[in-house]
Structure formats: C-alpha cells, structure tokens
C-alpha cells in the first residue's frame, strides 16, 4: 500500500515539472523584456524605450536601441544597411508618409549621434534641450547621444539624461591634453590678456574654462574615443529650443546630398575676441594651398577677396556635420596651425569662427547647408521660418517676428547671395 501511494506522489511531481517547463518556454519572451527595463542607464519604473517601440503601430522597434541585450523578437525594419531607395524621405507635405509622425520611423539610419558638452550643473538646462529634440525629432529615430565633460559625470546627470534620450547614451571624460594649456603657451602673457579683457568687460574675457571649451570644440570633440564610432554629429547645447517638427532625417539629408557642414543662424563675431585670427588664417592658406577648395565660400568671409575678414560666421551651438571632414588632414592641419599661434589663449577665439572659416575655405560651397526648416533658439537669437504655410505644416511654435535671418546683424543674406539661392517666402519686410 505504501509503495502504491509513493508512485502517485511521483506521478504528481512529474506532472508539475512538465507544466513548469511548458510555462517557462511560453513565457521566455517576457523574461527578456523584463531585463530590458533594467539595462544600465534606464530608470527603473520609467517606460523603457523597448516598451515604447512595442506600442508603435508599425509593430516595429522591438530591437532595443538602448543597452546591448539580444532579443528574440522580429527585427525592426529600421537601422543601418537598409536600401534608402526603398524608404524615400518625406521632404514636403505632398510626399507620402509626411504625416506619419507616430511610432518608430521605418528606413535606414545613419552612423550618427547627438553630442553635448556639458557640466554636471547643466543638468536641467540640457534636460530641456533633450526633451525638445526628442519630441520634435528623435523619438521616431532613436539616435544615440554622446555627453562629454572635463570632469566625470555624476549619477544624477546620467540618470536624468538617459531617461530622456530614446537612443543609447554614452558618457565620456575629456583627456587632460584636450582641456588645458598646451606647453607652448606663455602663462604670464595669457593671464595679462584675461585681466585686460576683464577690464574691458569683454564677454567671457576673463574666463580660463571658456577658452578651454572653445579650443576643445575647435580641435578635439570629434576625435574623442566615443565620437570615433560615428560619421555624423548634431551638436546640442543646454537651454536651446526646437520650434518645429522635423519630418525627415537631417543626418540622412546630409549624407545623401553630400553635405559636410550645416547651420541655422549666422552673424558677425565680436571683433575684440579675434583681432589676429584672420592673420593666422592667411598664414595657413599660404602654407597649405592644397587644402583650400576651389569652389569655396571666401565671399561669405571677406568682401575684398580675402585681405580682410568681415567677421561673418555660422553659429556653432547648432551644427549638424561630418565628423570625417573634421578628422580630415585639411581640418586638423588648420586647427594645429591656429593652435600654434596661440589665439585661443592670447585672445579668445571662439569655435564658431574657427569652424566657419574652415568650412568656408576648405569645403565646396554646396557642401554647406542652411536648414531653413529647423527652427531654433539659443539666447539671444532665433531662427524661425518666415513662410506661413511652412510653419503650419511643421506645427511651429515660434514667433516669425523673432526671426533673425534677415536682420542687419545676420550674415545669412550674404550666404544666400553667394550661393545664388532664392530667399524663402516671407523674408522681405523682416530686415529691421
Ligand atoms: N564640461 C564643461 N562644459 C562646458 C564648460 N563651459 C561651457 N561648457 C559647455 O560648452 C557649451 C558652450 O558653453 P555656453 O556656456 O553655452 O557658452 P555660450 O553659448 O557661448 O554662451 C555648452 O554646451 C556648455 O555646457 C566647462 O567648463 N565644462
Ligand atoms: C561608423 O563610423 C565610424 C567612424 O567613421 C566607423 O569606424 C564605423 O565602422 C562606422 N560604423 C558603421 C556601422 O558603419
Ligand atoms: Mg550656449
């Protein structure tokens, strides 16, 4: 009798075991999902990007864009390696899929990243910028975001920014050589300059860190180890705004149209910060004629064929550009030459005139692009499209009266003239 009931107990145990195995197999997908919301960099309790993707109507997007975990779900139809011809970009409201602004966008992705230089204290100002970039564009594209800092980022900064970015986030600490005085700089001379500029009340004139920042953005951000993984970048600063929907992928636009540098705002540089920059540039042009492009934009920089600089530059707090161009021999020779001349410390050369002069002289005219449809604000200037229909199509929330493009202190009219471009609808009457 005892042997008989032991056999029943064994049957029951086997049955439970079998059920457990079946349960495990049918639920293994959910096990993978759970691990997704706890990948490093996501905030427990927040909706993970993987969950967002699963809700997209196209059914695509379960391929995680954050974290490196594998998934057994079907591959989404977006990413690198897809044939662009199969996924035409919607550039105007007449193009198919123009109004398809929900879910993850189908089609190829470029080898591209957002990049932000910031301090830990910039956390809430960069959070605002990220939120707008995500809402207006990146939530459908999920590009990565690289954060760079001369000090280690703290956990708060990483947690908040990772929770806002739909792509992968990466955090890099800048090497000392890229954020310090190079050995050839005369410290006494540099100090006197700062004291003098402080007295003359030149903005950031007395700041050492601002000079390191400008030199870093001029010569080093594009060769940080994390940036070596990409071909294109979009620079985002704290406290900027994006006012219109971005319907197409600007990285892909750059790639397919062979653009290397782009801007939304241009203006005249404050002369006191760059008194000898043009002398350095002329020296470089003489030493390296091989780097000067034939069909260049010298006419954007100079009104007398290159003798004098008119101080026009593209505003570099917004940039979408080619990292490979910045890493080219032409650009790095240009930077090394300027760096040797010491103006980052003996004056206060900004990265905006440095990038702009390089682009204007070493790129062909048609490799520089003006993004009229990316509406943007960085204190104190706004780029807001003047065309009423365009603003409605893009659901812009900027006031066109704030648009800076056609005001006297902007250089954008000059850019249009040297490129023989027709000014956008609504430009006239905006000059003052
Ligand atoms: N890590 C770090 N970032 C800085 C420092 N100074 C400026 N930045 C960043 O460099 C960029 C330009 O600085 P910002 O203060 O906006 O200068 P402005 O736009 O010229 O007035 C921003 O992205 C800042 O967050 C610094 O000392 N350390
Ligand atoms: C992305 O660009 C980097 C830098 O040019 C390159 O090393 C890397 O192989 C590229 N990755 C892909 C997937 O094309
Ligand atoms: Mg700024």
UniProtKB/TrEMBL annotation:
InterPro entries: Glyco_trans_15, Nucleotide-diphossugar_trans. One of its GO terms (cellular component) is Golgi apparatus. Residues 34-99 are annotated as: Disordered. One of its GO terms (molecular function) is alpha-1,2-mannosyltransferase activity. GO terms for biological process: cell wall mannoprotein biosynthetic process; protein N-linked glycosylation; protein O-linked glycosylation. Keywords: Glycosyltransferase, Membrane, Transferase, Transmembrane, Transmembrane helix. The chain crosses the membrane at residues 7-26. Pfam families: Glyco_transf_15 (PF01793). Residues 48-59 have a biased composition (Polar residues). It comes from the Eukaryota. PANTHER family: ALPHA-1,2 MANNOSYLTRANSFERASE KTR1 (PTHR31121). Belongs to the glycosyltransferase 15 family. This is Nucleotide-diphospho-sugar transferase. It comes from Bombardia bombarda.
């Amino acid at each position: 009798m005892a042997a008989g009931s032991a056999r029943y107990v064994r049957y029951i145990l086997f049955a439970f075991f079998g059920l457990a195995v079946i349960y495990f197999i049918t639920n293994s997908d959910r096990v993978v999902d759970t691990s997704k919301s706890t990948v490093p960099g996501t905030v427990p309790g927040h909706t993970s990007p993987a969950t967002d993707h699963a809700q997209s109507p196209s059914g695509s997007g379960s391929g995680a864009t954050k974290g490196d975990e594998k998934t057994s779900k079907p591959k989404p139809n977006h990413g690198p390696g897809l044939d662009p011809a199969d996924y035409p970009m919607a550039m105007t409201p007449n193009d198919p899929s123009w109004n398809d602004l929900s879910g993850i966008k189908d089609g190829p992705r470029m080898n591209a990243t957002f990049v932000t230089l910031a301090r830990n204290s910039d956390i809430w100002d960069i959070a605002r910028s990220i939120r707008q970039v995500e809402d207006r564009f990146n939530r459908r594209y999920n590009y990565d975001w690289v954060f760079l800092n001369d000090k280690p980022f703290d956990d708060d900064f990483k947690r908040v920014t990772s929770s806002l970015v739909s792509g992968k986030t990466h955090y890099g600490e800048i090497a000392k050589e890229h954020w310090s005085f190079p050995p050839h700089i005369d410290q006494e001379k540099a100090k006197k300059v700062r004291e003098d500029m402080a007295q003359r009340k030149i903005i950031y004139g007395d700041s050492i860190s601002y000079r390191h920042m400008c030199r870093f953005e001029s010569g080093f951000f594009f060769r940080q180890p994390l940036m070596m993984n990409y071909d294109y970048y979009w620079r985002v600063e704290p406290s900027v705004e994006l006012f219109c929907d971005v319907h197409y992928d600007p990285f892909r636009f750059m790639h397919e149209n062979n653009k290397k540098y782009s801007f939304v705002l241009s203006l005249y540089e404050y002369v006191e910060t760059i008194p000898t920059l043009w002398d350095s540039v002329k020296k470089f042009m003489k030493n390296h004629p091989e780097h000067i492009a034939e069909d260049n934009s010298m006419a954007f920089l100079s009104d007398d064929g290159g003798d004098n600089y008119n101080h026009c530059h593209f505003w570099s707090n917004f940039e979408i550009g080619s990292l490979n161009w910045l890493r080219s021999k032409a650009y790095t020779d240009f930077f090394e030459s300027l760096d040797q001349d010491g103006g980052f410390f003996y004056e206060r050369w900004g990265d905006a005139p440095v990038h702009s002069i390089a682009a204007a002289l070493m790129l062909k005219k048609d490799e520089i692009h003006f993004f009229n449809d990316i509406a943007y604000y960085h204190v104190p200037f706004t780029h807001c499209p003047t065309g009423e229909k365009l603003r409605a199509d893009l659901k812009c929330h900027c006031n066109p009266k704030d648009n800076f493009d056609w005001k006297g202190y902007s250089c954008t009219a000059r850019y249009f003239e040297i490129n023989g471009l027709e000014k956008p609808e609504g430009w006239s009457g905006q000059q003052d």
